[in-house]
Amino acid sequence: MKAFRRTRDGIRWRSSRNEVRLLRTLAEQLVKMVAPPEAADADDWMIVLENEFDTAPLDRGDPAVRRLFPAAYRDDEAADAEWRSLTEASMRRKKADEARVVLAALEGGGTEVTFGVEAAEAWLRTVNALRLVLGARLGIESADMAAAVEELGDDHPAYPAVEVYQWLGYVQGALLDCL
Amino acid sequence: MTTGQTEGGVGVAERPLDETLGQNPWVCIVWDDPVNTTVYVTHVFSTYFGYPKEKAERLMLQVHHEGRAAVSAGNREAMETDVQAMHGYGLQASLDRQ
Q1: pTM of the model
Q2: Residues of B with CB below 8 A from A128's CB?
Q3: What is the ipTM of this complex?
Q4: φ/ψ (deg, to 5) at A63
Q5: How far apart are CA A158 and CA A80, in angstroms?
Q6: How far apart are the CA of A21 and the nearest CA of chain B, in angstroms?
């Protein structure tokens, strides 16, 4: 049975309770990781303005953060810093908003998850971001390391994370198949 | 990229080289990485750039086998837009001069 199906209402994900719970937990963590702080009162333009220029910096010591927000200029630090200052806040908001699209569809915790076709890209991109985060945390930086991770035995401490990493790849592939 | 399949092929820039050299001094480079799947990368190239499936696959294969590919060319501002879009999809991308 296919995991994702086109229906009259959009796309239906036939999932298990554990899958829904897992994806929700991961998407919530992604929002926490990337979202700039919210304005306390969005109607107060001063607060909005301050937030625009004073977002909590990303933890660039985290390999997952570096992987989600890579350099645009590899050989020019000054140009990269300038590019980052102009784009990072909106990139963070966009990634967080896409994860929230997924979270909205998971609301309620039922196993018949439905979302509109227009939400499919947000799903693909969020599932991909989660895979990148896990890949970075697992230290997958080369094809050899990717292959080595696949070989880990189920008694290895990283095995559960590898299983989630592989499952995210399966979910993404199944959704791409359905589009 | 990660895949169960084997591939081979070469990629090409979007526009003819003589034109890109004069008017499009910048390129958007996509780099190979071991996490993004070949199917997803192909999807990104066809969705974002509107490339036909064959061209999207050819560029994906070039990234996979050569480690990088120039996927678009243009002025600096346009290439910054493309790089930002690639980052939005989770691809490793950077700007470079031709």
Answers
A1: 0.86
A2: 36, 40, 89-90
A3: 0.89
A4: -60, -30
A5: 34
A6: 23
